[in-house]
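Hi C.,

You asked whether I'd gotten around to modeling the 303-residue construct. I have! Everything is below, sequence then structure, no commentary in between.
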Amino acid sequence: MSNRVIVITGCDSGLGWAIAARLAREGLVTVAGMYNGTNTKAAQALTKLNAHPFSLDVTNSKSVSKFKDYVMSLLADNPHNKLHAIVNNAGVMTIGNYEWQTPEIIENTINVNLMGAMRVVTAFLPDLRKIALKSETKPRIINVASHCGLHPLPGFGVYSASKAGLLAWTRSLRLEHRSHGLKAVAFVPGGFIGSSNIMLNQRSHGEAMFEQLNEEQKVFYGTRIKALSNYLGAASNNSGFDTLRDQKIIETFMKALTEENPKNLYVVESWRYMFYYNLLKLPLPEEIHLWLIRQFLNFPEEY
């Protein structure tokens, strides 16, 4: 696989950085999209592993175009290399009731998690299709989704919508390109918030959500917003770029990347996730579902 080129978005921390580091260590040509640019410790660490960090903002079409041009230049300089996978990992999440969320937070969540993946795939899709039609080693698109897209939760409405949309679009892509040999795969990595910076803006977003409410809403929701923001504060602290070391997540991703005939969906579930999500599939009264969700989330009582 050393001649395969893997392109990954959202490699500044968490899952994206861990995947890029793993692939680079194994000798694959790894192109890492970095929202914070290439002068960061995360980017420098990837460079030392012989990965190729490059600035990328998936919400900006010009940035995506430059990123694609960089990847194609690497391929042109090394004709024996082949584009094997586009991994859409870039993502953002703000927790809070839908009524609280500002238009900017809502639009950015959809723009990064769903539209961002679409922009990247639009840029690379014609090349991937051409490769799939004439190569024995079939390329693939891997979209990093979420349990929230499979099982929407209160407080995660916008994030769930973005990930549910990503799952639906991935399935559609897979069917559209089945006859071409191009695979589209959804990867659900499970919970790793403590090893990611996906919630780095949660505290400031909590303040923004409160400030944009009218007076009646502030009185009605103020205590709940404050309680949730305080509770999530620890999870939204900068955890460092290289703290994700869950081998089950990484090894499951490697299956999605390397299996000759990848499945439509790869899911990583801890026993806790499996226990609660299987219960939520049962035809129980909605009050019981809501009670189970509260136990699962374990948010403060005030919320």
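If it helps when you're writing up: The chain has a mean pLDDT of 94.

Thanks,
B.
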